[in-house]
Design goal:
- The chain is α+β, with helices and mostly antiparallel strands and about 325 residues long.
- Helix content is about 40%, strand content about 20%.
- It has two domains: about 90 residues; about 220 residues, Bira Bifunctional Protein, Domain 2 (BirA Bifunctional Protein, domain 2, 2-Layer Sandwich), CATH 3.30.930.10.
- The chain is built from eleven helices and ten strands.
- The strands form two sheets. The chain has a seven-stranded mixed β-sheet, with helices on both faces.
- Helix 2 packs antiparallel against helix 4.
- GO terms for molecular function: ATP binding; catalytic activity, acting on a protein; magnesium ion binding; phenylalanine-tRNA ligase activity; transferase activity; tRNA binding.
């Protein structure tokens, strides 16, 4: 048995030294030192040895196992170093080559306008409120004084998911939900930015998806003159000092009285930019406010329209086409 162990050592040592890669080395380790390996197979024959020979052969076997494990560890380290060196040579970087420039992105023009509008109104004491884009019919219409048979629903052809669930047509549901959450407490002073959806044919001035920002103020003694002052302050800050504003009578189911707000553009003349009005008493009452005690005003604007006027853009579709030539113009804005 001693001869068999020594022959096994020589054979294994030679095979380990000749191993070309780590996978081959692992196979040799299993072959010679594994539970079903050749060294174990030899040791199974120790039962036929005399009591005097067993400790001698056992000691020799352990010595051979130790030597083979040491050889395998040394070979493994050498193969790993060789593999690393090969990899480093293959992945070598030529530092004399010119670098690849990384072009930094910029904020989308619509987000620029949203941030500017938010900053203006936050500076006037407003809070920013947000809501879900998928809404129930009650909050999108009924709570805003637009019952199911109301003709005003024809003004907002909607994307319905079920008979009672739809993609919101305006951000007004955020106002109603905020009023309900306040549980009759005042003041309420919020703006609500977000995407809205209406069934519309896309062209230079219309889109089935666009961005809206609405505002709401509810408190004691809120008046139309306060609405006028807030809107004029906003318009001068977004379009510049001295920008002329006018209010025209209009109709919205959720405000009474209602107005359209125009600004004077040097080249286009009077241009409508938003709608506004005093919150309808029924809207306040449905949200849990006593309209005899509290009043409020609301307004709503399309962010795309503001951006098109501010940056002199002639086609709303530019905002959604991801054309880098268009977007790069706003890096320094």
């Amino acid at each position: 048995m001693r001869e068999r162990l020594q022959a096994l050592q020589e054979e294994a040592s030679s095979a380990i030294a000749s191993a070309d890669d780590l996978d081959q080395l692992r196979e040799l380790k299993v072959k010679y030192l594994g539970k079903k390996g050749e060294l174990t197979a030899v040791l199974r024959g120790m039962g036929s040895l005399s009591p005097e020979e067993r400790p001698v052969i056992g000691g020799l076997a352990n010595e051979i196992r130790g030597k083979l494990e040491s050889l395998i560890a040394e070979k493994e380290e050498a193969l790993e170093e060789a593999a690393l060196e090969t990899r480093l040579q293959e992945e070598k970087i030529d530092i004399t080559l010119p670098g690849v420039p990384r072009v930094a992105g910029s904020i989308h023009p619509l987000n620029l306008i949203i941030e500017q509008i938010e900053d203006i109104f936050v500076g006037m004491g407003f809070e920013v409120a947000e809501g879900t884009e998928v809404e129930v019919d009650y909050y999108n219409f009924e709570a805003l004084n637009i019952p199911k048979d109301h003709p005003a629903r024809d003004m907002q052809d909607s994307f319905y998911i079920t008979p009672e669930i739809l993609l919101r047509t305006h951000t007004s549901p955020v106002q109603v939900r905020t009023l309900e959450a306040k549980e009759g407490y005042v003041p309420v002073r919020i703006i609500c930015p977000g995407k809205v959806y209406r069934r519309d044919d896309d062209d230079a001035t219309h889109s089935h998806q666009f961005t809206q920002i609405e505002g709401l103020v509810v408190d004691r003694g809120v008046s139309m003159s306060e609405l006028n002052g807030v809107l004029l302050s906003f318009i001068e800050k977004i379009f510049g000092e001295g920008t002329e504003m006018r209010l025209r009578p209009s109709y919205f189911p959720f405000t009474e009285p209602s107005v359209e707000v125009d600004i004077y553009h040097p080249e286009k003349g009077w241009v409508e930019i938003l709608g506004a009005g005093m919150v309808h008493p029924r809207v306040l009452e449905k949200a849990g406010y006593n309209p005899e005690r509290y009043t409020g005003f609301a307004f709503g604007m399309g962010v795309e329209r503001i951006a098109m006027l501010k940056y002199d853009i002639d086609d709303i579709r530019h905002f959604y086409n991801n054309d880098l030539r268009f977007l790069r113009q706003f890096r320094s804005v």
